[in-house]
Amino acid sequence: MAAVESASTFTPAPEADKTADGAPPAAYGPTSRTVTSRDRDRASYDRELVHSLLDQSYVCHLGFVRDGAPVVLPTLYARVGERLYVHGSTGSRPLRMAAANPSAAGDGATATDGAAATPDAADPGTASSGDAADTEQSRPGLAVCLTVTHLDGVVLARSAFHHSINYRSVVVHGVAHQVTDPDERTVALDALVNHVVPGRAADCRPGNAKELAATAVLRLDLKEVSAKWRDGGPNDEPEDLGLPHWAGVLPVAPRYGTPIPSDDLDPAIPLPDYLAGG
């Protein structure tokens, strides 16, 4: 179907709410869903810390409820301001659920809170600007919990009970919406590619109409957010300190290997600068 020219309904990712002096608050406000029930000294709502942890990774786990049971899917994400974009397929469970089950939006979500998969969503150019806006407002969102975790070390204690891991994590609660506006989809998809490999979006062919129709993007605003971490060595009991067992931390860190060219790559094409640094 040919696309109908229309004005974009895309609005950029929202900025953080401002304080009285016009600056964004330094922290996200804790809520009943983001306050931890234990080890509260390891939790933080610091905005800069949350952004840093999100920007250092690109794989998240997206949790939602399907037929009364929890489902958790690993997928790619990228942060743009106070918004996360999550990669998916137009046939993925979250989008199918949001389309079929308005009540899936969960706490505080209404039919005006989000977007779900529809025929127009698969082909965003088929709706006029007015229709797109109306459709956007009539679609339910999907209540989700998104998590990102960095594993920094394995903690080996003298007792089995006190073995642990050192980690840094972010948990985001909210209502996810499908991105249907063509301009926002371009921003989101470029951000997803560049977040994994900075500079890559400009160094590859953009998606064609068929590929874009099969690709879905969810957006999730950063509102209910918390970070949590553990660092340091084992917390052995005083009476165990004399036991003849090694104790300490086994560091864990991600590492990229040497790029391996495709078997059918033209040998004249050099390694891009954004990969040459390892």
Termini Cα gap = 44 Å
Elements, N to C (H/E)? EHEEEHHHEEHHEEEH
Derived structural class:
alpha+beta
Q: Into which percentage range does the β-strand content fall?
A: 25-35%
Total helix count? Answer: 7
Physical arrangement of strands within the biggest beta sheet = 2-3-4-7-6-5
Low-confidence stretches: 1-7, 98-138
* Dominant shape: globular
Average pLDDT, to the nearest integer? 80
Main sheet record: 6 strands, antiparallel, barrel
CA-atom Rg in angstroms: 22 Å
* Residue share in helix: 10-25%
Number of strands: 9
What is the strand and helix layout of this fold?
Layout: E1 43-44, H1 47-55, E2 59-66, E3 69-80, E4 83-89, H2 93-100, H3 119-122, H4 129-138, E5 142-156, E6 164-178, H5 182-196, H6 209-213, E7 215-221, E8 224-230, E9 248-251, H7 273-276
Antiparallel strand pairs: 1-8, 2-3, 2-5, 3-4, 4-7, 5-6, 5-9, 6-7, 6-8
In short:
The protein is of the alpha+beta class and 278 residues long. The protein is 20% helix and 28% strand. Residues 1-7 and 98-138 have low confidence and may be disordered.
Structure overview:
It is a single chain. The chain has seven helices and nine strands, in the order βαβββαααββααβββα. It has 278 residues and is an alpha+beta fold. It has a six-stranded antiparallel barrel with strand order 2-3-4-7-6-5. The longest helix is centred in the last third of the chain and has 15 residues, at 182-196. The chain is globular, with a radius of gyration of 22 Å. The two termini are 44 Å apart.
